[in-house]
Amino acid sequence: MRLKPLFLVPAAVALMLGAGVSIAQIEGSGRGVAPVDSSSDYEVSGVRVDVAAKDADSARLGGWRVAQRKAWLQLSKRLGAGRGLVPDSTLDSIVTGIVVENEQIGPKRYVATLGVLFDRNRAGAILGISNYVLRSPPMVVIPIVWSGGVATGFEQRTLWQEAWARYRTGGSSIDYIRPTGSGPDPLLLNLGQTQRPGRGWWRAVLDQYGGTDVLIPTVKLYRQWPGGPVIGVFQARQGPDNRLLSQFTLRVGSVSGVPALLDAGVKRLDETYQSALRAGYLRSDPGLSYVPPSEVPVDDDEAGETLVTDVPAQPVVSVSVQFDTPGVAAVTAGEAALRAVPGVSSATTSSLALGGVSVMTVGFTGTPDALKAALEARGWQVFGSGTTIRIRRAPRLLPPDLVPDNSTAG
């Protein structure tokens, strides 16, 4: 006869309480999708190859070689460089990855559709083009999916979150910040938060992720019948006010095509956000910018006492400032701009990376927060805190209601 060990339940509960074990609401293994690739590599997709060889491994390796050559010709044509083929050894040094979109491997034949990733800096140097890309301020992404009448953000792992994690954002002009969905993300980034327009709370949330604004890509999935067609209604939303920028609809014939449907939706939404950036709709919300502490008024008597009191001199702090340096002129201009900030005693580039991000060591009389506020007052976008910060020039965009003057004189 089998005995049910019910008498073990109270003992197990007591053991858990005695050991201080607590089960939190945000714990679980069903969350957390890290982005596949956030680099700025060039990507060429949809390269078809059909190679025969003495065995399967040789055919596959030969197919990848052919894919690299075809992708290089497409990339040089797309960038307008017009360069021909380069040696395979050079391609091996600049190719950072092969993406298998679809492949069929036979005993002596390899048929596949591949994607090829090229290192932006090395490929740009060979093609003789500039690698500098103007990007938007950093935007925190909160993907919301409606399915079965229930909205889900980061509360659990979803296909919509996985689609955003798969998407390669290096070629986009939008600087996406894609949370993984672990830790406090389910509590801070959910549907309820997207419905709160309060700027104060939004500033506190965005500061946790280093963002200056929020993007809310939303999809509503409608299943016609079990296993049948699925319709997705995609919306590009932005800002604390959850403003709708655009909406479109896509459809697949069966449930198995939902991942492809979502991938296509992510690509369309990225194009929508890039168009909105160029049109001036993704301007920074003034309510989300840094608010300095209010000054306390001082009466004349207190002011007179303050003047005769010795004020200790503030120490000089050393701050590492990261800034974009597409060329030599950007290095000189960056140093000159920092030296013009009140309180800056020195500004010298300590780590130079032309075509990338350099580091400048800045001596400042005061606190790092005061330097950050002074830079923001001069039109810089400042990210990070403490003695290591990142600065960018805010993009100058026309407001959406202002038409650019493209007429010629005469």
Give the rounded overall mean pLDDT.
Answer: 79
Alpha carbon gyration radius = 27 Å
Structural classification = alpha/beta
Sketch the major β-sheet.
7 strands, mixed
Helix content: 25-40%
Oligomer: single chain
Overall 3D shape = flat
Give, in order, the helices and strands.
HEHHEEHEEEHEHHHEEEHHEHEEHEE
* SS summary, helix count: 12
- Strands, count: 15
End-to-end gap? 103 Å
**How much beta, percentage-wise?**
25-35%
Unreliable parts = 1-29, 295-311, 396-400, 402-410
How would you characterize this protein structure?
Helix 5 (159-166) crosses helix 9 (258-279). The chain contains twelve helices and 15 strands. The strands form three sheets. Strands 4, 5, 6, 7, 8, 9 and 10 form a seven-stranded mixed beta sheet that branches. With 410 residues, it is α/β, with parallel strands linked by helices. The longest helix is centred in the N-terminal third of the chain and has 23 residues, at 56-78.
Annotation keywords:
410 residues; alpha/beta; seven-stranded mixed beta sheet; five-stranded mixed beta sheet; 31% helix; 28% strand; flat
